[in-house]
Amino acid sequence: MAAQTYPTSASKVGQYNFGEWVSIFDTRLDEGYTEEINRYGLGSHYMDFLELADYKTNLTTRSPKVFERLEWETAVTVGSEIADGIAGADISFTVAAADVDASGNLPVMEGEGLVVPASKQTPAEDRIYVISDITGTTVTASPLSADGTTVTASQISVAIPVGTVLKVHGMYKGPGTGQPPGHNTYRATRTYYTSIPKTSMNYEGGINAIKWREIPTESGINQVWIEGQELAENFHSKRIDDMIFLGELNDNAALTETSQWGGTNARRSSMGIWNWGGIAGQDLTFDVTWETSNLYDYKDLIISQNVVSREVEFLYGTDLGRMIEEANLDWIREFSGGSDLFRTANEIGVDIKFFKGNGFLFKFQEIKSFANPLRWGNKEYNFTKYGIMLPNQMESVEIEGRTERHANIALGYLNNNGEDRTRIVRVLDGMSGRMGIAVDQYDGSNLYMLTEFAPLIFRPNQIVRVLPQ
Predict the structure, then answer these.
(1) C-alpha torsion 32→34→35→40, nearest 10
(2) From CA 238, how far away is CA 244, in angstroms rounded?
């Protein structure tokens, strides 16, 4: 970014007429920008991370539907108690409602086996029961070992409670019989909604003539940028950043605004990362104090969610970060034998710590906005003790009829038919002295910004939220 320039003569005013007013956001990848982020704390955290990594796409609708591939392996959750019974007897239960999709499809079919755990069996062995009938959501299954001629007959000795998850096992069919029904495709249809944050900044006449910079653009032409615009850009970025993290949908029919053209429109809002994790993800809780061994629990939570990558981004607040560092130092002292289990890397100008355990490589990064007491660092909330684990992998998803590969989190901007709503910046002039048409009689200018975007949280089932019990 060019150094700040002060006009020395009236001829400099001509610089203000290069063309459209631009946003510093358009030049954020220029050399020097990341240096300013680290030196002055100008970065907007989640948003900068996603933008600098180019995790974004264009949207052609305000309510895009995304089709995602889900885990194809299945298990079934018991929705009604399976009572203890006699040796060789069938079992029957209803499938838990959460396992039944919107079309009424079950995660099991006739002919598949179910493994009943040894803790519920006499003898104390894992035994297979073959599904012989499905009526509605009621499943009936018969034991392979029933008459005791090969091995001791299977018998439910301890009632199997509601919520027990049984493994689906193989397929058992006889000669000359027909094929089983076709498998369902395991995809989720998720609808995302755009938000429209707006920011305004007003400048008294003469301010433009005192402090401004020239911004180089891809076209090679320098554009003007008022120094006061920096504050407006940061306000705008922080608003977007807040909505990426803790957005929720507006289902309040009364929460509307009246359009300039007479319509009554809902205030648009998007679901953020944290709330997507609460709806579709899983929680890793710790008791008062974080311990490094908690990282090993991640595998138990995530392995069932079709995760391919063994690299995990662990983003966290300041209080949790302190506990993590202290626990890791204790871990090193206890197990390293004098060697350091961490290595550091320089990425976007900050040190990222790594820890490998239980087959996963964890990348630790504190979120700066979690430290600011005027933001998520406010002690009225617990965000300083919260964290999010995200697998670092690319996903194939279908967005509005086109197939794309994206990271688990991306920014979708409503850009279509020649209208780019990534960040619209416009200046309406009064009697400011700029070389433009005055729209009112007042000595000054009004700068307006608008963005229309949606946080696209692909595979939210793979989000693991970290929080104290």
Answers:
(1) 120
(2) 10
Closest CA relative to residue 443, chosen from 454, 451, 434: 434
Model-level pTM? 0.74
Two tokens, residue 93 = 């239960």
CA distances to 30, 216, 237 from 363, rounded to whole Å, are 26, 35, 25
Kind and range of the H or E run holding 450:
strand 444-450
pLDDT category, 13, cuts 50, 70, 90? Answer: very low
Burial of 409 (0-12, 13-18, 19+ CB in 10 A): buried
Average pLDDT in the 348-377 region?
A: 75
From the list 417, 420, 392, the residue with the least C-alpha distance to 407 is: 392
Answer yes or no: are the C-beta atoms of 205 and 430 closer than 8 Å: yes
Residue 245 CA to residue 47 CA, distance in Å, equals 9
Q: Classify strands 350-357 and 344-347 as parallel, antiparallel or unpaired.
A: antiparallel
Tell me the pLDDT of the chain averaged across its residues: 80
Looking at residue 156, the DSSP 8-state letter turns out to be: B
87 DSSP 8-state letter: T
User: Hey, which residues does 465 pair with through a beta bridge?
Assistant: 283, 388
CA pair distance 381, 318, nearest whole angstrom: 13
The rounded distance, in Å, linking the Cα atoms of 136 and 372 is 54
What are the tokens at 302?
A: 């995530």
Name the region of 369 (left: φ>0; alpha: ψ -120 to 50; beta: rest): alpha
Return all residues near 226 (Cβ < 8 A) that are at least 6 apart.
Answer: 203, 207, 208, 211, 212, 447
- Exposure pattern of 255-276 as b/e (b: 16+ CB <10 Å)? eeeeeeeeeeeeebbbbbbbbb
Residue 161 to residues 60, 92, 140, 165, Cα–Cα distance (Å): 48, 13, 16, 10
Residue 101's identity, in one-letter code, is D
> What value does the mean pLDDT take over residues 426-430?
84
